[in-house]
Each structure stands twice: as C-alpha cells, then as structure tokens.
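Field: COMPLEX_INPUT
Field: COMPONENT_COUNT = two
Field: RESIDUE_TOTAL = 255
Field: MODE = joint
Values follow.
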Amino acid sequence: MKLATWNVNSLKVRLPQVIEWLQSSEPDVLCLQETKLLDENFPHEAIHSAGYDVVYSGQKTYNGVAILSRKQMAERQDGIPGFDDEQKRILAVTVEGIRIICAYVPNGESLSSEKFIYKLKWLDAFSNWLKSELERYPKIAVLGDYNIAPDDRDVHDPKAWEGSVLVSNEEREAFRKILALGFSDSFRLFDQVEKSYTWWDYRMNAFRRNMGLRIDHVLLSEALSSKCKGCSIDLAPRKNERPSDHTPVIATLES
DNA sequence: ATGGCCTCGGTTCGAGGA
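Field: COMPLEX_OUTPUT
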C-alpha cells in the first residue's frame, strides 16, 4: 500500500503532472493540497479516467484539499469537527480500515502576524481532533503540508532560518505534541540521505542549490508505523517544466 | 551579489505562499 502527499500549488496548472505522476508512481492514495479550485471546477473526470476515485474540498484562489484513491473511500470528514474555519484545509476518509487524513496546515506568514496566531490555534484544534481520532481508529495516516520543519536537519541553513516561521520553537513544539499522541514521522523511521527536503523556493535557483525545507510529512500511528517499509521523497516532479514548489512524499506499508 | 518566483483575480498590480 503506497500512501502519498503532494502540495501541487494549483491543480489547474499541475493537473497534467498529477496524472503523469499517478501513472508512473501508482500510489494507492494521493493527498493533494493547495488545489486552489472551487468544487464545481474540480477536474474529477480526468482523475477518474486515470483510475482513481476522488473527494475534494476547495475554495477560490487559496487552500483546497483532495484525496485520490484506487480503493473505496468511506466516512468522509470535511474540516476539523467543532473548529469553525472558512479555509478548506482538511479532508479525511477511511480506506481499507485505514483512516487517511489530508492536511494543509496554515503557513503563518511570520511570527508577528495574525496568521501565526491562527496557525497555532489551528494546530491546537488539529492535535485535539487527532487525539480523538486515535481513540476511534488505531490505523491512522496523517499526510500533508505541515508548514513545519521539525528539526534543524530539515532546514538547508538552520542559522539563516533560526526563529523564523516554519522552524520556530512554538511550531516545532506543536509538531512534537502531535507525535506525542502516538504518531511517527515515517521519514525518520529509516536511514535517509542528509539534506533531504520537500520544498524549495521558486527564487534563487533554490532547487538547483538544494536550498530547501522538509515541511511535507506522512505521520503514522503505531499500528501503521510497525508496518511501514519505507518513506521517500520523489524529487522528479520538482524537475518538471512549471513545477510545484513542493514535491511528493511517499510512505509504503506492508499489504 | 542578500535578491532573484509563481499563482490568482482581475486587470498590468497586490496578496499570499514558504
């Protein structure tokens, strides 16, 4: 079972790349973030034609999430229950007994921004919800763009980034709090090459110079992490013409 | 060399991303 996540930064622009990637990588489940599409404009037919069922929750211009699956999806949940949020950032479904949560965590902009306060509130609500989900579902995979680099290993230049949004202590503490509920960062279950990242700025030739951050993650509950055979970052789509600034992360589970 | 981009909406610039 291959579970993947990819922030596509506009599905309208990236649809051909997503279809191509589905065909070359054959994930069982793919979580997308930043689709930036109203539901009425979602390209469901192209995705069905590629052999995937899909659920989506979008809005104009910003945010938007979708889950693509080759197998039947059930128990759909939109948003964090009890957390009033206009922004479309969460979708959850159950696939073959595995709770799949697709998350687009707020960016936060900067530590002094109102958006940073929203990010921390959002993460608190998210964490509380994940705790209750764990009580209902032993097998949970939380895939998405967390907009948090958990450790200095996940930052190309920790000194330059010190204290900035995406790497601040408060954000890392929120990430650790989620792990403490009983999740593993699947990427760190395995030996990985140094300087592995999932996002690179469009500017400054950042990808060519590998000036990146690892901010997209697949978190697995204990019942799944014990079955995880590998987790990898696929750099290929970041080399495409007109790439997303993020690239996919794939976790493979024993079937 | 300390700044360099991309997407969207809606018009040719501002907001937002990370």
